[in-house]
Write a structure and sequence with these properties.
Layout lengths: L7 H8 L5 E6 L5 H8 L3 E8 L2 H13 L6 E5 L13 E7 L1 H10 L9 E6 L4 H9 L2 E11 L2 E10 L11 H7 L1 H6 L2 H23 L4 H21 L3
Parallel strand pairs: 1-2, 1-4, 2-3, 4-5
Antiparallel strand pairs: 5-7, 6-7
The structure holds S-adenosylmethionine.
């Protein structure tokens, strides 16, 4: 993979950048996404933020090699601390777990004006992101689920707005778990992901049922049963 031949996953993230965007890519190993976005006129300026020295150096080298130093500023820092308030139109955070992405947003909230589009690509546990977005009054604009090299990824696009809009006609708990737009479309990848998750959850639940009835196990079993009910409803399986 490189800046010209980007992964399908990151290309889809770039597709959602607003026109002529200035954007920050947080956790920008190699700065592949910013380089691709600038070279393909999907953005006019970018900030590549990295917390770790190795990926930071790779990002600097990549930007320099492509002579994009004028358009891409590579900055070392934790999450959104690399941007000034009002500096960007969009923020991308890709290739991490949902809890980490939600924490980066939570810790860096004071750096957001609320006018930015957020394009977030969790590898797992997107629930944490949808919950944070809802609590902060963001509207889900769109969602994507895709498979690449045997792995399933989700992309969540959000802007400040009507936080309830996407969840109309479904329970919020279900929508936050599986994605309200994704649940309405139910493409093959979606059904495969959640069928597998349902089977996995049922297996664990039956193991816990056989284990000692401690308070902890009883609590865990309740959680798993609730998740099973949600998934069966979403997938409309008995
Ligand atoms: C798995 S890589 C993903 C890289 C790229 N965004 C992608 O989707 O392919 C995650 C990167 O995020 C960086 N990272 C993790 N936590 C971060 C934080 N709080 N602030 C900035 N960068 C972070 C890591 O150093 C690593 O380079």
């Amino acid at each position: 993979m490189n800046e010209m031949n980007l992964s399908k996953r990151l290309k889809r993230v770039a597709d959602f950048l607003p026109k002529d965007a200035v954007f920050a890519d947080i956790g920008s190993d190699h700065a592949y996404l910013p380089c691709y976005a600038i070279l393909h006129q999907k953005a006019v300026k970018a900030i590549a933020g990295e917390i770790t020295d190795g990926p930071l150096q790779s990002a600097k080298q990549q930007v320099h090699k492509l002579e994009l130093d004028e358009q891409i500023s590579v900055r070392k820092g934790n999450g959104l601390e690399v941007i000034e308030q009002g500096e960007v139109h969009a923020v991308t955070i890709a290739g991490m777990g949902g809890a980490l992405i939600a924490n980066i947003l939570k810790d860096g909230k004071h750096k957001l004006t609320g006018d930015e589009r957020l394009i977030l690509q969790p590898n797992i546990h997107a629930y944490h992101i949808r919950l944070w977005l809802y609590q902060e009054g963001y509207e889900l604009i769109d969602e994507v689920i895709l498979e690449e090299d045997g792995k399933i990824y989700e992309i969540i696009i959000a802007e400040k707005g009507d936080r309830d809009k996407a969840y109309q006609g479904m329970s919020k708990e279900a929508g936050m778990l599986v994605g309200p737009y994704l649940a309405k479309k139910q493409n093959d990848v979606f059904r495969r992901k959640w069928m597998q998750e349902l089977q996995h959850t049922e297996k664990i639940e039956s193991q816990i049922k056989k284990a000692a009835p401690t308070d902890e196990n009883k609590e865990r079993q309740k959680e798993l049963q609730a998740k099973i009910i949600i998934l069966k409803e979403v997938l409309t399986v008995g």
